[in-house]
Sequence to fold (220 residues):
Amino acid sequence: MSMFSLYPLTYPQRAIWLTEKVYPNTSIHNITCSVKIMGEVDYSLLSEMINLCLEQNDGLRFRLIEHNGQPKQYVSPYTRREIPFFDFSQSTGPEEQLYAWDRKIAASPMKLIESDLYDFALFRLSSSVGGFYIKLHHLISDAWGLAVTVDWILKNYFENCSKKNIEDCSKGNGSKQRWEAEDGRGLVEESGWEDNEEDLGRSSQEEEEEKRERGNVLLI
Fold:
């Protein structure tokens, strides 16, 4: 471990750590969502973008150890991850199967010591709907951080779809992307990419190209 620089936990992290010590083996600090992409999904490319996100964002790779009785953290070196793939398309009621699977793994506690504090998976609901699942521990992220991570992955995925000229890779059926996030209590938030000043003056052709690149995205 001497080859890695050790850092103390921040005050918010220490509060989370102490809560975990008092209430161990719970999912109280798991932050999760499933991201549905409406359109044909390139799972190989999506896996590469998740790996690129892990490679370029050191904060996701923080790991914890106990050093002289105190929790410390260090940035683990990047190694490529094989992202597991789950196919619900052949199931009866694929969406219901996805929701049940989502809630099960969201409720699964994460190992805190010498372990990744993130989890990713790919899933397929049909030939035209798929996406990815993300779980982050509150020690390395909050809900805003999860939203930023999801946005980073989607932005790079759709940009690379466009570069690879994959026909209908992100075919959307809505005029704007939108997302829907549901927490464990069943509360729902909705949002989308709204027009802003930078959008003014753009041609309809440019807007249509952007829609095709972004597709239609739903966060559960």
In short: The chain has five helices and ten strands. Confidence is low (pLDDT under 50) at residues 166-202. The first strand starts at residue 7 and ends at 8.
